[in-house]
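During the reporting period the student researcher (J.K.) took over the structure-prediction task from the postdoctoral fellow and processed the backlog of single-chain submissions. One of the processed entries is reproduced below for the supervisory committee.
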Amino acid sequence: MLKKMPVIVLVGALAVTLASVAPFAQSPASSRTPAAAKGPRPERFTYPPLAFTPPKAAEFRAVLSNGLVVYIAEDPAIPWFEATLVSQVITGGGGGGGRGRGAELAGWPQGPGGGGGGGRSFLEPPDKLGIQAIAGGLVRAGGTTSMTAEQINERMDFLAGTVTATGLSIHTRHVDEGLKIWLDLLTSPAFPEDRLQRDKQAMLPAIRNRNRNISSVASRTFQRLVYGDASPIVAEPTEATVSGITRADVVAWHKKYWGANNAILIVSGAFKKAEMLQKLEATFGKWKNAEKAAPAWPKVQQTTKAGVYMVQPQGASPNQGIIQIGHLGLTRDDPDYPAVDLMNYTLGGGSFSSRITKIVRTDNGLAYTTNSSFPTEIHYPGTFQAFCQTKNETVVFAAQLMLNEIERMRAGDVTDLDLKFAKAARLSAFPAMFSTVSGNLRNFAALELDGRPMDFYETYEARYGRVTLADIKRVAQKYLQPEKLIIMVAGNTEECKAGAGKMLPNQATIDEMAGKFGGRSLDGLAKKYGDGTIHVVPLK
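J.K. obtained the following structure tokens:
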């Protein structure tokens, strides 16, 4: 048992402790260590101008005897080989029991090598939509006439590499064998019937459930409203089109389009360029040409009139709504694109420095993700869209805030400082587009594949640098078009259109926006921007 300590001992100890700290407590302020001097504010720092010259495409371009264009560069950092085929019609599935890489490359222009393939080709027959993806996946998953998929899997595991229809990633000591296997996949796929049926069945759940996901419903419905239901841009595989694809269809598709003249080869790794070109000539130089793919790029115009449109996911009553506000945009190579991009950086494309993010998210706390963008296409106009996902009760309020910022920009409420900040962001990020060897090659291959100017990157800084404040105001008037604005809301239609209640915070701002846009409910926006009717869009 612990004995009690005498009180007199505790009192004495406390007295000694207080005496020891007393001199510090009574020290004059002048004896304290002075506070460190403050440095300059961040905006006062100055840096030398960023000097960066992008590489030239011609330095990396070669052509094999069969006409196959190759972009090739040495990358000796590690003993590895990376190669990718890019194409408008040849796609590559992961396949092989999950051992291959995915079908499409994310993060262009600096995505990883060893996979990839094209996007929409607009060459699929309307009653066979899905055949492009099925063929690409089945090339790898079905094996070849000389090696089954399982044999390819086992061999690639042994070689510690991966191969898909459109990519090879392997140690340099195994390049020769890897190239032979890859070329065998491209030229002699087996297309087994059982695997075709399995792949077709695997596509059906996503098709059946796509109208149950609010994000999918919102993006697809907005595209339908902008481009029209009859446009091939919004055409999608259905159960009927997928189920109707036969092995003969896949064989015919492969024979028609899978050739050296419909692809560009990207190669990087630890090798000598001249030696590698000899290896490629001995393998891919034998790849025959096919019918030249000539996509029928769609001619588009916005047929949906301005107004308010609502859509509700199938079998769901979500507690949040997605707002997409916009209309038809412009192409990526439009001369106005740099000015539009800089204007939109201030409006909603500059993340936390943009106005829409600041107003909707930071100041009013309505959403985690909100922005505006001009997602562009190469061969036909893209869209303009302002986006927000927020709870049902604040859908109208958030839409009003975004519309208010769009009107501010159209009214010319933009400054030289806004432009300077946007330019700095874009030009400072430009060198990062060339941060990897394989990414550099992919940049150039994409330009050539799409028939774009090959000096695009050489003139990039000049095109952005010469944009003036007058240009920003001009394109805001030209490309933000209230008379064409489609205001689309996906979610619980009744709850979303009701508007903000009296118990929410920010009532002063809610009242201000309601006064400007015709009330708290969605009906006010329908009257201001449309025909007064809230149009309900059926699912497709």
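The committee noted the following: The CA atoms of residues 340 and 475 lie 6 Å apart.
J.K. will present the remaining backlog at the next meeting.
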